[in-house]
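INFO batch 0412 | record 1 of 1 | parsing
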Amino acid sequence: MTVDSSVIVRGLSIVLIDLLLAGDNALVLAMAVRGLPARQRRAAIWAGAGAAVILRILVTIVAARLLDVEFLKLVGGALVIWIAVRVLADAGVHEKDIPARGRLLQAIWMIVFADITMSVDNVLAIAGAAAGHTGLIVFGLAVSIPLVVFSSNLIAKLMDRYAFIIYIGSAILGRVGGEMMMTDPWVEKTFHPPHALIWTVEGVLVVAVVVVGRYLCLRGPSKK
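INFO prediction complete | emitting C-alpha cells
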C-alpha cells in the first residue's frame, strides 16, 4: 500500500510538472505551424509532438549528458528565434498564399528539434520526480502530448483571431531563444555571462524579433 501511494504521489507530481513546463513548448508548436492550413496544422502538431515525446523517452537515460553538449542549446535557441521572426514575417499573408508543399514536413522537423533542445531540463525534472521508475517516466512524457497538443491548437486559433497574440508569442520566443543560447555550455564556459548580461541579451532579442519580423511583414511576401 505504501508503494502504491508513493507511485500515485509521484505520478501526480509528474502531471503538475507537465502542466508547468508545457507552455513554452506549446507556444513553439503553435508558432511553427501558424502558416499551415488548419488540417495540416493538426497533423503537424500531433506528428511533431508524438515524435518529440518518443525521442524524449529515448534520450531520458542520457538527458544529464545532453545538458553538457556544447552548441546544442545555442542552435536550438537560434531556431526558436528564427521561428518567431518567420511567423511575424508571414503575419500579413493569408494562409492560402503560403506554399503548402514541403511546409508540413518542415514544420514537423522544426517542432521536433526545437522541442528536444528546449525539453532536456523538463526530461530531467520528470526523471527526478519518477525516482528512476521507468513506467512513471514514460507516463509523464506521454501525458505531455495531449497537454502540448491542446495548448498549441488553442494558441494557433487565438493567433488567427487576434493578431496581437502573434507579437506577444514572438516576443516570448525571443526571450526563450535568448535564454537557451546564453545558457549553452560553450557560451557559459567561454564568456561566463552574469545574470545581468543574460537578461540584457534576452531583452535585446525580444525587441529585435518584433522589429525584424514586423519589417519583413511590411515588405510583403514578394520581397522576402
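INFO post-check: The chain has one domain: 2-223.
INFO record closed
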